[in-house]
Amino acid sequence: MARDTTDTQPIEGIDELVGYLADGNKPREKWRIGTEHEKFPFYVDGNAPVPYGGERGIRAILEGMQEKLGWDPIMDAGRIIGLVEPTGQGAISLEPGGQFELSGAPLESIHQTCREGNAHLAQVREIAEPMGIRFLGLGGSPKWSLADTPKMPKSRYEIMTRYMPKVGTKGLDMMYRTCTIQVNLDFESETDMRRKMQVSLKLQPLSTALFANSPFTESRPNGLQSWRGDIWRDTDNQRSGMLELCFSPDFGFADYVEWALDVPMYFVIRDGHYHDMTRYTFRQFMAGAARNEVPDGLPTMGDWANHLSTLFPDVRLKRFLEMRGADGGPWRRICALPAFWVGLLYDEQALDAAETLTASWTYEEALAMRNAVPELGIAAPFRNATLRDVARDVLAISRTGLKNRARKNRDGYDETSFLNTLDEVVARGTTSAEEMLSAYHTRWGGSIEPVFMEYAY
């Protein structure tokens, strides 16, 4: 979320909060694809992290991008922390450790997503390369310690940094040392949302396995294929995870609201100032707990929208669904992630097939997969097989869905080719992380420095 919301409409009751989510219902012809991807900036000279300030820092990149694109700056306490396209068609934002994120426009096809990604990477390279800066497409920072990693001057991150060590052991690693690719997808009704939520939650561990791309920490193998996936196992389990409540056959908007109400808040914004609210749940806030502590201390719809953006389940419900399981990766993965999920969820035949495939999967089985994947990747066991076997079936369903969509580019090709990089993972039986580990032990000579050349944008 590039810019926090400041909608001042007061909240009268819980029904309004449910209605806020239900307002996301869209007819199929208005369904869109919103892709987000993060990458680590680094100085080519020494493969060092890039700080916020200075003539060759993150701020200078943002200012250069602003001049080039004409986008509006996003400011926090007088400092530029992002850019937004004036009509809301995309944004550039910063993650806590300087990870550079494009939140893409809502688009109609994966072809458009790839063109958008290409254009963004070309634009940011044009600004950054004269500064000696490139970008790394991995799921986890491979070299820098937390102490080495710069901190971005963003008020909500200051609150989160103080809070994370109180609720888990790996929250600061999540904030400062991980990158992801996400896709945001629409639903047409509560029933459609439920079906998509349940299918995508069950298959999120498979997404983590297929995109596993973070095997190094502080210049050494970390024993994992997706360090990022492992980090999410103990970041803040009150607001993250697989959400067993979503597996209920009658799960709906109201159930998600009831869960969200009892998750501690991070902040509210009043007159541009961020107030720490981590000692209150949103339900307590609605009951007047902060009435005497925060100016205008009663909740608004903007507060609710911001609160929803600080919840981190594997699939996040807002006025759309966010697929959150994948590590960041190279350019081909930026296109493959939305293709994978669009193929499964945006075609009725494919969604029926995915739902049938996963119908008998229990929460306990899905959680076991989630716990096994960071170490084992597609070799993680499932029933009498492995996730590699499951992946064959799921990719076939996704390919059918993309064929049925029949969204073709100017050369007449549909969207199925964007799955090829995932087909290669299954055919090889090895993830990107395993390929990197093999290189580390052979041609890289026990050094992770070559990753900055081979996985750079």
UniProtKB/TrEMBL annotation:
Organism name: Mesorhizobium humile
Pathway: Sulfur metabolism; glutathione biosynthesis; glutathione from L-cysteine and L-glutamate: step 1/2
Database matches in PANTHER family: GLUTAMATE--CYSTEINE LIGASE, CHLOROPLASTIC
Family: Belongs to the carboxylate-amine ligase family. Glutamate--cysteine ligase type 2 subfamily.
Annotated InterPro entries: GCL_bact_plant, GCS2, Gln_synth/guanido_kin_cat_dom, Glut_cys_lig_pln_type
Gene3D superfamilies referenced in this protein's UniProt entry, alphabetically: 3.30.590.20
GO molecular function, one term: glutamate-cysteine ligase activity
Function: Catalyzes the synthesis of gamma-glutamylcysteine (gamma-GC).
Name assigned to this protein: Glutamate--cysteine ligase
Its EC number(s): 6.3.2.2
Domain of life: Bacteria
Summary of subunit composition and partner proteins: Homodimer or monomer when oxidized or reduced, respectively.
Entry keyword set: ATP-binding, Disulfide bond, Glutathione biosynthesis, Ligase, Nucleotide-binding, Transit peptide
A Pfam family this chain is assigned to: GCS2
Reactions that this protein is recorded to catalyse: L-cysteine + L-glutamate + ATP = gamma-L-glutamyl-L-cysteine + ADP + phosphate + H(+)
